[in-house]
Please model this.
Amino acid sequence: MATKKQFNATASLLASLFLWAGSSTPALANPNDKQLQEVAKELGLLRYVQQPAVTPQTQQRQIQPAKYDPYAAKRQQILQQNIARKKAYQARLTQQKRAKSKKNQNLRVQQQNSHGNVWNRLYQGFQIPNYNKQPLVRKFTTQFSRSPKRIQRLADRSSKYLYMVVNELNRRKMPTELALLPFVESAYRNKAYSHAGAAGMWQFIPATGRRFGLKQTRSYDARLDPYKATKAAFDYLQRLNREFRGDWLLSLAAYNAGEYRVHREIAKNKARGKRTDFWSLDLPRETKQYVPRLLAFKEIFRNPQHFRVQLKGIPNTYALTQIQVNKPVDLKRAALVAGLPADTLSSLNSGFLHGITTPRHSNLIILPRQHAGRLNKVIQKLPPAADVHNKSARKYYKKKTKRRTRGRYVYHKVRRGDNLYRIAKRHGISVKKLKRLNNLSGNKIKPGKRLKIASKSRTRKSYS
Model:
């Protein structure tokens, strides 16, 4: 039996939990208090717990049914259809992109593996062993492959000269890896100059260029002629290869540092009982990096897809041609008259330093094969040009200008489409002088009108 002390404790607890209020059924003092409900549950008094009173408003809300929406199902159906259509559209786009990428990749592989592609001839002519496990080769391969767009630009720039270079290598039975040497030397730029005085696509210094027949004057530098410089470079490389008994790595190192330096390092290693291959020599830092750079380019161009480089197919035919012209020609003017950009010829014939050919040093002009016919006709019709820096051009022009001219002035008959600027530029005078000679106040001229250009005595002076 419960003691009096326990009974009083239970009574006090019930008094704090329940409100009797004289009713026969006890109720919780605060029915919404969760803590009191838990205590009542532990004491087994939950049968006395009354739920909160239901107000008329809540009772009405419970009894009242939800409003019927006749379009809810239709909206849900449309939403699901839109989601399904969006997923299908995204799947179609992804499939189209994959198909296009695969098609382009197959086309590139087909172009690279075709017999009519210069890249394929380049790969077939590789003769130097692979050194892709050498640390420096791996370093430069990783470094170059980080910018595939730059590699692509270099490949596009070389497309004009690559067939000519590979053709010459095949004719001489030399490794076609040497066609990648201008990537290291000059990035296939004709007008490339170095701090040491090297110039051209193959970076000949003046003394070495003269050794191999490359003329250098005030108006002409054969080191900037891609045809002559390529032949001279291969003559030099063949000589070095014979000197180093067929070791192309040592030959390339000698091309960069000089054969005497390489021979000196070989002699040092022999005296110390060390190996005499390229990787064992104590060469200058630039030369140590020179050969691995070439081998890194070889690795990238041998497997362009692996390095995300998209090589365009280069047709297996000459992109350039040469014509023989025995008169001075203004290359910029010839290109403009033919309707081409002004630097079309000067960029290919950068050996003519003043933009005017010098037949005394070279009577060959390089033309893009695509426009060769049109340019040839224009060049043959143009009068001989004169260069104030070029004695041979001045002498040649004086012989041609000994013809007598009728009257006191040289005239120009205005044709449809002519304007003062074109006429003045064509005859080598300023617009201001042309207007002064013809008493013109404005810039309007009518077709059929004859304009004075200059007096007979001044005609020679203006071109000499």
Notes: Strands lie at 18-19, 27-28, 320-324, 364-368, 409-413, 450-455. The chain has four domains: 4-53, 119-302, 320-398, 404-463. Residues 4-53 form one domain. Confidence is low (pLDDT under 50) at residues 19-25, 399-407, 456-464.
